[in-house]
């Protein structure tokens, strides 16, 4: 009887969520697991032993308004870590993991000792990199105090706080020293683009970058040559149609630029490296 109750609750929730979600069954499972205080795998394995909690319906109602799953549950998995997220930060996405993959491809068996994450948000990129390279240390910069509080909390929960420092700042302004790896996921959506789905609930400052979506790239590009260590690299997220325009901005600063595609085959990450020494 309990098993039928859980199964029926999931079926009903899935049907209700179909008009607002491309993954209604997954959403229902994640929300029920959250309401039960367990993970989704436990939910799927233990349905016979579980009872649907009263709060589940309220979570479904929130999702029906379009609120993202990550903001409802407060959790988002990224790379090998789980992050706390709030509406103060962009929700980390699998596409952004392409930047970490690019860094691994560049450094191979070596460790980027000093890492910089510009526009750190939840701390996703910096903390993923620190989990990948246990000998590395890093700095995360963001213009939002609320975002920095989220990032610091994530560093504390993951046990990475001793190797992660967070500071309030405007991209690379005022930073000293050279960094082996610079990770950047700036706003890159053109202001007139009509949005739909989860992004409607995310902070505008993390999404929009002027008329062409290039405003922040224009500011960041001149800063990089003074921040990149010899042999280092910057991994910069771009929109799927921005390879040519953004590559030109960084090439104009004397950087060598290549592109890495995401799993969907879209241009996603620019790899910028300093020119070899003469």
Structure description:
The protein is of the alpha/beta class and 278 residues long. The protein has two domains: 2-66, Helicase, Ruva Protein, domain 3 (Orthogonal Bundle); 86-273, Vaccinia Virus protein VP39 (Rossmann fold, 3-Layer(aba) Sandwich). 35% of the residues lie in helices and 19% in strands. It has ten helices and nine strands. It has helices at 2-17, 24-36, 40-45, 56-64, 69-73, 97-107, 124-132, 145-158, 215-220, 243-251; strands at residues 75-78, 81-84, 114-118, 137-142, 164-168, 179-184, 228-237, 256-261, 267-273. The chain has a seven-stranded mixed β-sheet, sandwiched between helices. Strands 1-2 form a two-stranded antiparallel sheet. Strand 8 and strand 9 form a beta hairpin. Helix 1 crosses helix 2 (24-36) and helix 2 runs antiparallel to helix 4 (56-64). The longest helix is centred in the N-terminal third of the chain and has 16 residues, at 2-17.
